[in-house]
Every structure is written in C-alpha cells, then in structure tokens.
Amino acid sequence: MSESVTEHSVAVARLTWPEAGARAAAGVILAVPVGATEQHGPHLPLSTDTDIAVALCARLARSRPDVLVAPAIPYGSSGEHAGFAGTLSIGQAALELLVVELCRSATDTFDRIVLVSGHGGNLEPLRKAQELLRTESRDVRVYMPRYPGDPHAGRSETSMQLALGPAAVRTELAVAGNTRPLAEILPQLRAGGVRAVSVNGVLGDPSGANAEEGIALLEQLTTDLHDQIRLWWPVTSPKGLLS
C-alpha cells in the first residue's frame, strides 16, 4: 500500500498558520524528508529515495505525537547518476544552500528539526548544512538510514518499494546489474559515475525482493530513527508524548 503524509494532524503543509504556531508552542519536532529524483534501474521509479524518506517520516510521526512532517525535498545531489534519463540533480552546493535557508526559515517557528535523507549522495551537503546551522544555535540533526544489502536499486530498495507502492515497481524488468562489492568498483564509480560501472543503473541484484522483506526493513529503520530521536531529544515533560 502506498504510504504518504496526508493526515491533517501530522502534515505541516495541511495546517493553518495558527495551528502550526500552536503545535510549535507545544514543542514539536519538524521532520523534513530529503530525497532525490534519480534512476533506480529499469524497474523502480525515480522517486524511490523520496518515497522511502517520506515513509520514514510518516512512521516516525505515528510513533511520536510530537512530530510534524514537512513537504519532501524531491531533488538531491545525484550527479553520479547522470547519463540516465529522468535523473534530476541539483548538486551538492545547491542542496546545502536550499537546506540551510529552509531550516533558517523553519526555526523561526520550530525549535527542533530532523532531516531524514533517503539518498546516500545527500550526506555530505546535509552534514555541511547541519554544521553551519548548529553554529547559529539552530537545533538541526541529520538522519541517514543504513540497511544491509545492495548499494543501489537491488533487493533492499526493491523490497521497500514493493511494500510502499507495488504498482510502481516493474517487476518483469527487475534484473541484476553490477554485483561486485562496492569497494571494488568505488574508484571507477567516483571517476565516471554509475554509468561507468552498470549499464542498467543497478548495483546489486533485485531478485527475490518481496513486500514482506520491505515491511521488515522499514520497521527496522523506523525503530532506529525513533531511537535516535530519543537520544537527541528525550521527552522530559509529561505532555502525553512517547519517550
């Protein structure tokens, strides 16, 4: 079943400004999904990384009533996927600037912000943005999910997309790409991008992917995100919130 953030109670974009102000006054955390629009092989949609980031934020909001979810950032630093049709990358510098300005604006209302990224290539600009924002005394954190399996468009991502939106997965087109360990292909990958190491854009093998495995992975990542949020921002006052 497709998962999105549409509930009036958790999606900040569906609130009025007085409602947003009231929620902020109660001490909410603003979760910002940061994704990408990039190729994920011939079988997965370009939105895969964004879909996963949105799902994690939505699940976090269901597990902690003090979380609001912002509209997703659907563009990231995806230059390594250049050469594959449909990839839309804004690069590291632009992503860093976008996140810095967004969080500066957001912290006019919300005291705590977590950036939940679904794309590994976003990590460096998000960390740089976090470092700058924290020097400005803005409480901004970055969460990058880690999961076992293939590096890109393999069994793990395919399973999660099957759990989130099976209609978007072209299962009949799911075939293996370059299955060599990432460490072996990393120099060539850095020099020439994914196109240099995989004709179909897959790094791994999606064979055997299934929705049940995807659900388990999403639950594992949601638990990890929830635990990390508890470490960053423990609940210290009885407001009916989960600790």
Q: Can you describe this structure?
A:
Helix 2 (48-63) crosses helix 5 (155-164). The protein has a single domain (12-232), classed as Rossmann fold (3-Layer(aba) Sandwich), CATH 3.40.50. With 243 residues, the chain is of the alpha/beta class. Helix 4 links the parallel strand 3 and strand 4. A four-stranded parallel sheet has the order 2-1-3-4, sandwiched between helices. 40% of the residues lie in helices and 8% in strands. It has helices spanning 17-25, 48-63, 91-106, 123-135, 155-164, 182-192, 211-232, and strands spanning 29-34, 67-69, 112-117, 139-143. Residues 237-243 have low confidence and may be disordered. The chain has seven helices and four strands.
Features:
243 residues, alpha/beta, Rossmann fold, 4-stranded parallel sheet, 7 helices, 8% strand
CATH architecture assignment: 3-Layer(aba) Sandwich
The total count of helices amounts to: 7
Integer count of domains: 1
Rounded average pLDDT: 94
Main sheet: strands, sense, barrel? 4 strands, parallel
Outline the low-pLDDT stretches: 237-243
Strands of the widest sheet, in order across it, are 2-1-3-4
| Helix fraction by DSSP (H/I, runs of at least 4) | 25-40%
CATH topology-level name:
Rossmann fold
In the CATH hierarchy, what is the class?
Alpha Beta
Any idea what the radius of gyration is?
Answer: 18 Å
Distance between the termini: 28 Å
For CATH, the homologous superfamily is named as Creatininase
Order of helices and strands: HEHEHEHEHHH
Total DSSP E strands: 4
| % residues in beta strands | 5-15%
